[in-house]
Amino acid sequence: MSWIAISGQGRAWVCPERFGTNAEARNVLLPRGSIMIETRLSPEGRPQTLLSYERGYPWHGSIAVRAVPGGGIVLVMSQGEDVFHTVLQHRHDARTDVVRVTFCWDSEARFGRIAVESPESDAVVVQDTPAPPPMLLEDVYTLVRRPQLIEMDRDVVFFAVSDRIEPIGPMPSLVGQAPVLTPTGYRPVRTLKCGDTVLTRDHGTVPVLARVERQVPALGSFQPVRLRAPYFGLRHDLVVAPHQRLVIGGSEVEYIFGREQVLIPALSLVNGFAALYEEGARLVRYHQLLLPGHEPVVSASAQLETLYVGRLRRRRDHVAQTLLTEVPRNLMPEHARAGLKVLRPFEAITLAEARAA
Fold it and tell me: Could you read off the pLDDT of 159-173 as tens digits, one per residue?
C-alpha cells in the first residue's frame, strides 16, 4: 500500500481497507509514513499554517506544519510527553508560486526527513531530522475527514498521507500508455526498459538507461493535463503531468521568439482548447525515461523532455532518496541543460493561437 489519505480540491478520501469502520480500529500507531503538503506561497510574505491539529484522547498529541517568511518550514509533533521539533531553511524564490513539503518518518529505524521541492524547477532542499514520534492513524483520519478540527491555510492546494517513505527529486511525467517512438515504431512508455532504444529527431537512436514510475495523488502539480491534437503537431491527444515540457520549434517560434526551439510546460497550455486538466482520477501513475544526454523523445509526433538528473550522481546520499536508487552507478549520467527558453503561460498561448491560425 502507499497513499492512504488525500485531501484537497474538493476531495476528502481515506483508504477503507486501512482505516476500517470504527474509531477503535484507528487507535493504532503509524510507525512509518509520509505527509505531503502542496501549497502556494503567500504573495504577501505572511506566515502560513499549512496544517495544524491537536487532540487530548487517548493521550495528548499534535502536529503543526508552518511556513515562515524568508523561506522556512517549521514542524512540531507530539505524542504524549514525546515532543519533536525541526526547522528547514530553504531559498525563497519570489518567482516560485508553489512548493511541495514532504515529511517522512520511520520510528523503528529512528529516521526522519523533511524536504521542500519546487514543481516549477529542479530545486530540492532536504534535511534529515532527529527521530520523530509515530503518528496515530486516528489523527490522519481526523486531518482528512474532520476539517472543523484542524487549521489549514487557504493557500494549501492539497495534502496526502502515505504509509511508505515517499521519494523526492526527479519525477516522471508521462502516463503509462503514452507512445514513444522506437526504431520499430511507437511503444507505450510503460513497456520500455533498460537496454531498449528510442528514436529521436536530433540525436538518432538513443539507449534507455532506466525507466522510473511513481503513483501520486492526481491533484495540484500532479493533476494530469490532456494535450489536445492537432495543436503543436500532435497526432492524437496526450496525457502528461503539468510540468512535462514540450520541445517546440518551427517558423512561428523563430518569428515570435527569435529562437530555433523553446520549451513549453504542459500547464502553460491549459486554456480550454490547446490543453485541459483531466478530472475524476484519485491517483495517477506516471512514467519517464532516463537517457544519456537528456534527449527529447518523440511522442504522438511531438517532442517531449525526458528525465533530467543534472549532477545527481555525485551525491549518492541524495540518489538513495529518489526513484533512481536502483540505477547502477555506471549507468547514471550527468545532464546539462540545453539552455532553451521556457515560455510563460501567455507566451505559450500566443504560440498555440499562432499555430492554430
Answer: 999 999 999 999 999
